[in-house]
C-alpha cells in the first residue's frame, strides 16, 4: 500500500521542482542514506559515534510531548537511529504531570517507551528520552523541534532565552498565531525573534493518531531562505509513510495550518446541526477562500500554490473530517451552544488542547482592528458563535455579516 502510494506521488509530482527535490531527499531508505547524502549540520557535537566528525551531527530536542509531539518524536527517532547525520538520542521535553497512579509522566515514558496519556499503545523508539527539565532537554541540541499548543510557546521561549546552543536551527509544528499590539505574529516568527534563530515550519494533513500507526500521509516544510536547511528537516521527518515536501513560503504554510482550525470549527458546527455533506463542503470551500485571502492580505509573499500542498487543502479536508476541533465543535452545536468549549474540550480530549477557538479569537482581533469583518464572514461568525454572541445555527445564516457587495467586488478581484 505504502509503496503504491509512493510511486503514485512521485509520478504525479515531477513538474514541481521543490517537491521533486524533497521526494529525492526526504524519505530515504537505509541503504540510500548510508551512501552518504552530504547534508551538513552546523555545530553538532557532544557525541562519540564512529569516526564521523562531531560537526556532522544533528542533535535533536523535541519541545512538547502531546499527541502530535509524541508522534513527531517517534518519526524523528526512527530516522535518528538510522542516519549517521543525526545523533541517535532524541530528547523530548515533557511538561511534567502526575498520573492517576501517582507516577510522573516523564518517568513512565522512560520506563515503558510509551506516552500513556497522550499517545497510548505506541512505542516511541528506545532512543527517545523524556526529560521534564526544559533547559537540560535543549542544552546539547542544535535542531529544536517546537510542538506544543500555541498558547504556551511564548512562556517556553522566555525560559529558553540564552539557554540554547549558538547556531541552533528550529522548526515549528505548531498551528496557531499570537496577536500583539503591533499586529499578528506567527509562531515561527515569535520563536525566531525571541531566540534569535532561524525557524522553518512543518504543517500538513497530519492527524497524529493515524501517523502513529504508520498510515501514509504527506507534509510540507516551509522555509524562508535556506533550502538545504529545509531539506535537512525533511530528511529528519520523512519516512516511507510520511512524505515531506519543501516550499519557500513560511508564512503561507504556517497560515494554512493555523487558519484551517477555524474552518474545522465551522465544519464541526455543521455536523452538529446535521446539515449534511453539501453544506460541509460549502463551508470548506468558503473557508479555503477566506484562508487564502487572509493570508495574502497579511503577507503579499504568500503563494497560491502553497494552498495545493499538503499543508493547504489536504490539511483542511482531514481536519474537517476527523480532527479534534471538528469533534468538539460538533458536541458544542449538539448542546445548542449551552455547554462551553472549555468544558467540552476537557471532557472529550482529556488534556489535549483545541487550537481553533483561540485562533478564531486571534483572527477576529486582526479583522476588527483592520475593519475587515465584512470581508471574512465565515471567520467572523465562527468567533461570534464560540463566544456565545450568535447561536450555532448562525454558521449557515451569515445574516449579521452579509458581505458588503461593493467592497467585495474590488476585494474579490484582488484576493479571491
Ligand atoms: N494532534 C494532532 O493530530 C496534530 C497537532 N498539531 C499541532 O501540534 C501542536 C501541539 O499539539 P499536540 O502535540 O497534539 O498537543 P496535545 O493537545 O495533544 O497536548 C497538550 C500538550 O500541552 C501540554 N501542556 C499543558 N499545559 C502546558 C503548559 N502550561 N505549558 C506547556 N505545555 C503544557 C501537555 O503536557 C501536552 O503535552 C498544536 O499546535 C496542534 O495544532 C499539528 C498536527 C497534528
Ligand atoms: O492539525 C491536525 C491535522 O493535520 C489536527 O487537527 P485537530 O487539532 O483538529 O485534531
TrEMBL record:
Superkingdom: Eukaryota
Enzyme Commission designation: 1.1.1.8
Amino-acid positions noted as binding NAD(+) in the UniProt annotation, renumbered to this chain: 64-69, 152, 208, 324, 353, 355
Positions annotated as active site in the UniProt record: 260
Keywords in alphabetical order: NAD, Oxidoreductase
SUPFAM superfamilies in the record: 6-phosphogluconate dehydrogenase C-terminal domain-like, NAD(P)-binding Rossmann-fold domains
Cellular component, GO annotation: cytosol
Residue positions binding substrate: 175, 324-325
Residue ranges of every copy of the Glycerol-3-phosphate dehydrogenase NAD-dependent N-terminal domain listed in the record: 60-227
Residue ranges of domain Glycerol-3-phosphate dehydrogenase NAD-dependent C-terminal in the record: 249-397
Keyword NAD tagged: yes
Keyword Oxidoreductase found: yes
Recorded catalytic activity of this chain's protein: sn-glycerol 3-phosphate + NAD(+) = dihydroxyacetone phosphate + NADH + H(+)
UniProt-recorded Gene Ontology molecular function terms: glycerol-3-phosphate dehydrogenase (NAD+) activity; NAD binding; protein homodimerization activity
Family per record: Belongs to the NAD-dependent glycerol-3-phosphate dehydrogenase family.
Protein name: Glycerol-3-phosphate dehydrogenase [NAD(+)]
Origin species: Ananas comosus
Gene: LOC109706368
Amino acid at each position: 500500500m505504502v509503496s503504491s502510494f509512493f510511486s503514485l506521488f512521485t509520478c504525479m509530482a515531477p513538474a514541481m521542482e521543490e517537491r521533486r527535490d524533497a521526494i529525492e531527499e526526504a524519505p530515504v531508505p537505509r541503504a540510500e542514506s548510508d551512501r552518504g547524502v552530504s547534508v551538513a549540520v552546523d555545530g553538532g557535537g557532544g557525541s562519540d559515534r564512529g569516526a564521523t566528525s562531531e560537526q556532522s551531527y544533528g542533535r535533536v530536542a523535541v519541545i512538547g510531548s502531546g499527541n502530535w509531539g509524541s508522534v513527531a518524536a517517534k518519526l524523528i527517532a526512527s530516522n535518528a537511529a538510522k542516519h549517521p547525520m543525526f545523533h541517535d538520542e532524541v530528547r523530548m521535553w515533557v511538561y511534567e504531570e502526575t498520573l492517576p497512579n501517582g507516577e510522573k509522566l516523564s518517568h513512565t515514558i522512560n520506563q515503558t517507551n510509551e506516552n500513556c496519556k497522550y499517545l497510548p499503545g505506541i512505542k516511541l523508539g528506545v532512543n527517545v528520552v523524556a526529560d521534564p527539565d526544559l533547559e537540560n532537554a535543549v542544552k546539547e541540541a542544535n535542531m529544536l523541534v517546537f510542538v506544543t499548543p500555541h498558547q504556551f510557546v511564548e512562556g517556553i521561549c522566555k525560559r529558553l532565552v540564552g539557554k540554547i546552543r549558538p547556531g541552533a536551527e528550529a522548526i515549528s509544528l505548531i498551528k496557531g498565531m499570537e496577536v500583539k499590539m503591533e499586529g499578528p505574529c506567527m509562531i515561527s516568527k515569535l520563536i525566531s525573534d525571541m531566540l534569535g534563530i532561524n525557524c522553518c515550519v512543518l504543517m500538513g494533513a497530519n492527524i497524529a493518531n493515524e501517523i502513529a500507526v504508520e498510515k501514509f500521509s504527506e507534509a510540507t516544510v516551509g522555509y524562508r531562505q535556506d533550502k538545504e536547511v529545509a531539506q535537512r528537516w525533511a530528511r529528519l521527518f520523512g519516512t516511507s509513510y510520511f512524505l515531506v515536501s519543501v516550499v519557500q513560503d513560511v508564512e503561507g504554510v504556517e497560515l494554512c495550518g493555523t487558519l484551517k482550525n477555524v474552518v474545522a470549527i465551522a465544519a464541526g458546527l455543521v455536523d452538529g446541526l446535521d446539515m449534511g455533506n453539501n453544506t460541509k463542503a460549502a463551508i470548506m470551500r468558503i473557508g479555503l477562500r477566506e484562508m487564502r485571502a487572509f493570508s495574502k492580505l497579511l503577507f503579499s509573499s504568500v503563494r497560491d500554490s502553497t494552498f495545493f500542498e499538503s499543508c493547504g487543502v489536504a490539511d483542511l479536508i482531514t481536519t474537517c473530517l476527523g480532527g479534534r476541533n471538528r469533534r468538539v465543535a460538533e458536541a458544542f452545536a449538539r448542546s445548542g451552544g449551552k455547554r462551553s468549549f472549555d468544558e467540552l474540550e476537557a471532557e472529550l480530549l482529556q488534556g489535549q488542547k483545541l487550537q481553533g477557538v483561540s485562533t478564531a479569537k486571534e483572527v477576529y482581533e486582526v479583522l476588527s482592528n483592520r475593519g475587515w469583518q465584512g470581508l471574512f464572514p465565515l471567520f467572523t461568525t465562527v468567533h461570534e458563535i464560540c463566544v456565545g454572541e450568535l447561536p450555532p445555527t448562525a454558521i449557515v445564516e451569515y445574516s449579521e455579516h452579509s458581505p458588503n457587495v461593493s467592497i467585495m467586488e474590488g476585494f474579490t478581484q484582488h484576493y479571491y
